[in-house]
Amino acid sequence: MKKRTRKKKTTTNPGKKELRHSPEGVRVETGPVRLNKYIASSGLCSRRKADELITMGFVKVNGATVNELGVRVVPGKDRVTVKGQEILLDAKLVYILLNKPKDYITTSHDEKNRKTVLDLVPATHRLFPVGRLDRNTTGALLLTNDGDLAYRLMHPSFEVEKAYRVKLDKPVSAAQLHEIVRGIHLSDGKTAPGKAWIIEGTKRFEVALVIHEGKNRQVRRMFESLGFTVKQLDRFSYAGLTTAGLKRGEWRFLTAREIKSLYQLVNQGKNTESLS
After folding, report:
1. Rounded to 5 degrees, what are φ and ψ at 20?
2. Which residues are catalytic?
3. Taking 60 as the threshold, does the pLDDT of residue 275 lie above it?
4. What is the mean pLDDT of residues 212-240?
5. Distance (Å, whole) CA 121 – CA 98
6. Is residue 230 exposed (0-12), middle (13-18) or buried (19+ Cβ within 10 Å)?
7. Would you say 26 and 90 are in contact if contact means Cβ atoms under 8 Å apart?
8. In a domain, 119, yes or no
9. Residues 198, 204: contact at Cβ < 8 Å?
């Protein structure tokens, strides 16, 4: 007689809230969501800024002012306004990879009327950049209207990798590179360990650096702390997305496989209870 084998039960982590991806590219809503999350998902601002707007009394739900955090709304049912402007979620989810050129601001709006990265992509959807690249930094920048995914990609707990090509004003030594890899003490704390190597054929003037943090002007400040001036800074990879095949200022839509990979990146092995 064949010995019967009992199938192992698969269990899910009750403390982990998985971010669902719609293969059809439409927004998936499963019920009430926090008000700050709803506002951020529209691309208006970050969740932190949304909290500020709520506590300052600029947000109304169904005509009533809300100034307490933690309030939940039902997308498509409740009417949310910020400073009198109705907040709507775009039904179609869009994901664009841009090879950012110099002299473009990584923001949705600029009070000084400078060129922004949104000037380079279609205006048919309300997109916003995932993270920031300073004005003189070039390279991979993700633009989307998927607020949940963007929030997780930017959240420090997911340690999303960013890879840069750094051109310096003088050769870097092995000892200096080792300092960079171990972490540099900056005014806002020590940087986390990363990876770095000399780019072959550059006479030690160019370095490839991989980090998973997002401190303000972090790469430039790390090298400046060791006496270097960064002449050029290009992010050639973000969350596994590279600028290969894209000239400066060019963009493309992500493939279904790339979008799926991003969702897997922010769902694997992380307790995301605090992110809901």
Report:
1. -85, 140
2. 134
3. no
4. 95
5. 8
6. buried
7. no
8. yes
9. yes
